[in-house]
Amino acid sequence: MSLPSIVQLEDGWSKIQNNGIAVLEKFLDGGFQGGTKAQPVKLFSKEDYANLYTTVYNMCTQRTPNNWSEQLYKRYGEALVNYINLQVLPALKDKRGNALLLELKARWTNHKLYVKWMEKFFMYLDRYFVKLQSVDPLNTKGIQVFRDFVFEAVKGEVRTALLSVINSQREGEQIDVDLVKSIIDMYIDLGIGKVNVYVTEFEEQFLNATVDYYLRQATSWLSEDSFPEFMRKAEDAVFSEDKRVDAYLHRSTQPKLKHVVIQTVLASPQSKLLEKSTGVVYLLENDKREDLARMHRMFNLVEGGTAPIAQSFRGFVTSKGMSVVDVQAERFKDMSKNEALSDTKFIQSLLDLHDQYKSIVTECFNHDSLFQKALKEAFEVFINREISPRYNFALLMSSFCDRILKKRKDTLTEDDVEKLLAKMVDLFSFLTDKDLFVEIYRNLLAKRLLYTSSSSEDAEKCMIAKLKLKCGAQFTSKLEGMITDLSIASETEKDFQTWLADREEKKDLALDFHVTVLTTGFWPTYPIQDVRLPPSMTKSIDVFQTFYQGRTQHRRLQWVHMLGQAEVVFKPQAEKKYFLNCNTFQALILLLFANDTAVDMDFGRIKMALGFQDDAMIAKLLATLCINPKCRILNRTSDGEKAKTISSTDKFSANMTFSSPRRVLKIPGPTTEETHNKERIEEDRSIAVEAAIVRIMKARKTLSHQQLVSEVLKQLAFFQPNPKVIKSRIEHLIDREYLERDTNNASQYKYLA
After folding, report:
1. Domain with CATH 1.20.1310.10 in the chain
2. What Cα–Cα distance (Å) separates residue 483 from each residue in 429, 476, 486, 487, 634?
3. Cys-Cys link to 378, which of 8, 207, 317, 696 (CB 3.0-4.6 A)?
4. How confident is the model over 426-458, as pLDDT tens digits?
5. CATH number 1.10.10.10 is the correct assignment for the domain at 678-751
6. What span, in angstroms and rounded, lies between the C-alpha atoms of 653 and 557?
């Protein structure tokens, strides 16, 4: 058996050089012709490749000193360097710009192919020698050779050419995107698994060049373009740079590139941009919603960029609201109270204003909490200002709700009412004196429920539910109680009618009457006025008293005649009959003329007949019956015939010439001065302040005066007490020994358990 012959280094290398490397280099230099994409040139046959691989294998597996692994590894690198020096560098020399990039792309493509085939020839080295000696793999070695001998020689010119091409694209020119991507990929490949070469040799300079480019652009746009046009160009810039990353840059560049563009075209010039006459105020004034949305979208990319815009938005809305309120304040000077409270235009204008800017916050500012807060703060400024000594927003808003919920000729649909109520609750949320609103609203709700003037019980419940959702159950407990109480009263009335149907007393009753029993705690407090009732009414009351006492012994009935309603039949002429709907007191006055329509009664006689002590109320009642031309049931004889107020010297008689096209007449009741009890509200507020103080001190034990005042203001959501009021309640609690002052610090309070 013969031993295999030893392959000497030079013999083996000569074979590799001539049969492998020379053939490969000839192909790379274009020496092979006739290949196509479908059928590329076949460089090596299977036999040729096997012979080359076997030669390397034999040279690497011979025993020392004939093991040529180290020498082959070294000559692998030298072959690459030799080819680069002879062919690659001369081809790149003196080339600049696009020509340099094209040549570099071709040479890098060739080099990768060169390395690929050399890896195949020297595969045994990669499997054993590289691992045993811990040297670079052949592929890595090949890339390092290109980086050290080619890239280092041309990197400056390549970077300049690359930045020039990218700038050309920014200016709108068409470029060879594939070429640029190939060069960028080369940077990344040269990093051998890392992006350090790409970052240090391209990205850093690219970002600096980007800043310089957009700095020039932003300066030009700032001097030549309007605010909306600037924003459009800025948005295009950010979008185009994002596309540039997608097209040929490494994805790690995207956040850095976006940051420098945003800082250059948005953050740096923001203050000057916002000072432009076509800035935020102009866009809001002209309802430029697309531009507003773009502005928010772009400055939202800048850290803190939306804050000054939100401030401008707040100021603009405040200014608009103050203008509306100022105009209304002037109108109120020439309006009567009834006209002012019946006028829905003012509150409607505020609702429209809120709708307009709320929709801008929604559509243009994407529900941004910063702008929602700005809108809230703006409305709080003018919603809580003093509009008139006679009227406040709580009263006007309550009256507006009253108009919506009352029966009316132009009745709104249920959906319209619900939408309007939702808007009103939004407006109500800006009100500081929420407790005052609910007190007035409760009085007006009571009138609607008791006089059956409410358009819909469902609408009433809907409004209460919305207020409950906004402020909590405690806020609406009395309102809900009134609705429930009225339902119970209706059941009581049915029971009474059933009870009465089987009683002998029914025969003695001259009136068809109904009673509504209410629970005092839910309803507003009404003055109890003693009045002399006719026997027919007294009998009816006695019958109901008997029925009610049979149901319960624990409740006492108190009759509020001023809330009562009556229907009086009036026959001024034999052929005409009118049905007058009026309140109990008006009915009592009319009944004084029932037996003798020709009699004249003076003010004093009417007062005596009624047993009334309130002259002012009697005057108001008489005014409703003789001054209103549509309901002039009584004639008045007065020293001043045209006077609009009733005098104690006036005389009255039935108007037997009265005529009206309508047979059923609603006689309006007398106007009252207040829709709420101011003293009661102040008392409730004092109790709420004291409760908050005790609650806070019980939890905290010790607090300074300023801290305590601050905590109280935070807790009281339904009204904003004056700090002086808080101080007086603190003093009151100290007197009652709930709190005490610190002996060493008078401004420090302690809770007494």
Report:
1. 9-190, 196-299, 307-476
2. 23, 11, 5, 7, 37
3. 317
4. 999 999 888 888 888 998 999 888 888 888 888
5. yes
6. 35
